[in-house]
Amino acid sequence: MIDSIRTVFSLLLSIFIVMTGFGVASFIVQSRALGEGWTTFDISLIGATYSAGYTLASFIAPKFIRRAGHIRVFAAFIALLSISILLCALVPDPYAWMLFRCLFGFAMAGSYMIMESWINEKATNQYRGFMFSVYMVVAMAGAITGPYIAAWGDVLTTSLFMVAAMLFSLAIFPITLTTSSSPGVPTESGFDLTGLWQRSPVAFIGSFLAGIISAAWMNFSVVYSKLSGLGETGTANMIAAVTLGSIAAQFPIGRASDLVDRRLVMSICAAIGIAASLWMASIDASSPIMLYCAAFAAGMVIFPIYSLNVAHANDLAEPGEYVRISSGITVLYGLGVIVGPLLGGQAIAFGGAAGLPLLLAATFAIYGSYAGWRILRRPA
Length: 380
Hints:
This protein has 380 residues and is mostly helical. Helix content is 83%, strand content 0%. It comes from Rhizobium alvei.
């Protein structure tokens, strides 16, 4: 296991820096939108265009990777991340931000695709869940750092946008200067949703639902926190609680899925998600410690369920298929990421702050029910 981690150390360092920039960017986009007085519908549309760009990358990025290789394309996507967040600082208009966030989502999905296919190529089935847990923990550690950096600045100025752009640019260095071998050029580009369905129906459905859950939270976590009565630091604490929950649970969940039926682990995670989300819906900032504890419990499963889908889909993959599988999962996850902000905005519009965790609870229920049904339909 340690040797496997050593082979992707430079990649993990780049992942941490990228996700720190992502954490800063996500915080300031939502906070600036609220500061400008834009409506929750405007914010949901901005989130949906990010998701549309994210999904578009599934069609285009594999062709880029096949033509130019992982490292060159990664550098190009990082440059696009920097450009798109700086454009948001230059033109604070909701309609312009829809275009800029679409570009950002495109670049972010392409970066994820490269990072995840790289991890999958270096991992064996015996330790695939563990390796993806390492990847997710590093990513979450970056995501938890970003909001605290952003909390020190003023979202109504351009400085934090520049900080995010500098972090993205810095992430180019570890991966482009690494002496470790990069993944082989994929033998096929594009994606195969029919093949993914035949390989793993639960990963097919689960990727879509995981996209709804994560996107609803990421696009409205700041809005939810502030509607619950939390200030800037409290909002950062809320995001940190969810992220710390993800970090704490990622290794046990990943390793457990290597030892038993991954679908059973999915069902257990869904049950935890339902209970934690209902707990969050029942409290507000009058009990901040309890709110952070509930957020921690929800975070244990909000993000880790994605890695379960990826690991399950890749268990039977052949060399050269990882980008193709990652592309298919990204398409489905991206569709969920488009739907998530739209549902999240409507949930908050009708139910207030409690609407968001209630939406998460309902989606977790569908996720867990389907995984449990698939256990009855096909042996592990």
